[in-house]
Amino acid sequence: MQGNMRFACTIFLLLLLFAQGTVLAKGNVIRLHVIANSNSPGDQQLKERVRDKIIAELGPVFAEMEQRQVAAWLEDNQDVLVNLAAVAVTEAGEDCPVRVRFTVEGYPLRAYRENIYPEGRYRSVQVILGKGQGRNWWCLLFPPLCFVSETVAEPGEGQEIEGRIWLWEKIKELFRKLFQGSCQQDSFFVFPD
């Protein structure tokens, strides 16, 4: 009986590890990702102008929506985003092609005040300027943290951030209960805290 339980738990753990690369870090989050043409000062300033234009125009629109509505709007209105970015480019006196895509991509750990967004894959709308080879800027379209003045903290900037993944904590708890007492000396699984 205990051998079957260990086998089932091992299979479950392997499936969980396999799914880790495909699961969204937080399903209710949508990020805005503006990527500059290059790292030249002019291209970086243009990236910021595009960012400011999108935030100014879409802030009031997204403030009244739920996550699923924002996702649907982004999927259906990528041309609106292209036009907003193109207007910002033209207003800056530049000539730079703009591409937009609604995708899923990886992001590092980020904290906005008390909210921690773990490293992982998130839904994202990318606004790519020109070749898209420059430094980028990103924030959260939903929940709408792009539109609020926030102090952003990252590890290494004077504060440590400790995040815990709820599912991982539950899995560790399950394995501790399953194997408690049966293999105290030669534990099959070791869980770091």
Summarize the structure.
Strands 2-5-1-6 form a 4-stranded mixed β-sheet. It contains 5 helices and 7 strands, in the order αβαααββββββα. It has about 190 residues and is α+β, with helices and mostly antiparallel strands.
- Strand count, sense and closure of the main sheet? 4 strands, mixed
Q: Give the SSE string.
A: HEHHHEEEEEEH
By DSSP, the count of extended strands is: 7
Structural class assignment: alpha+beta
Q: Walk across the major sheet and give the strand order.
A: 2-5-1-6
Count of helices? 5
Q: What is the average of the pLDDT values?
A: 76
Task: Outline the low-pLDDT stretches.
Answer: 17-22, 148-164, 182-193
Tell me the fraction of residues in β-strands, as a range: 15-25%
Shape by Cα distribution: elongated
Q: Assign a percent range to the helix content.
A: 40-55%
Distance between the termini: 29 Å
Q: Give the radius of gyration.
A: 22 Å
Overview of the structural elements:
This protein is of the alpha+beta class and 193 residues long. The protein has a domain at 30-153. 41% of the residues lie in helices and 21% in strands. The chain contains five helices and seven strands. The protein has helices spanning 2-19, 41-63, 67-76, 78-91, 166-179, and strands at 30-35, 98-107, 110-112, 115-117, 120-129, 136-142, 152-153. The protein has a four-stranded mixed β-sheet with strand order 2-5-1-6. β3 (110-112) and β4 (115-117) form a beta hairpin. α2 crosses α4. It starts with a helix and ends in a 14-residue tail after the last helix. The model is unreliable at 17-22, 148-164 and 182-193 (pLDDT under 50).
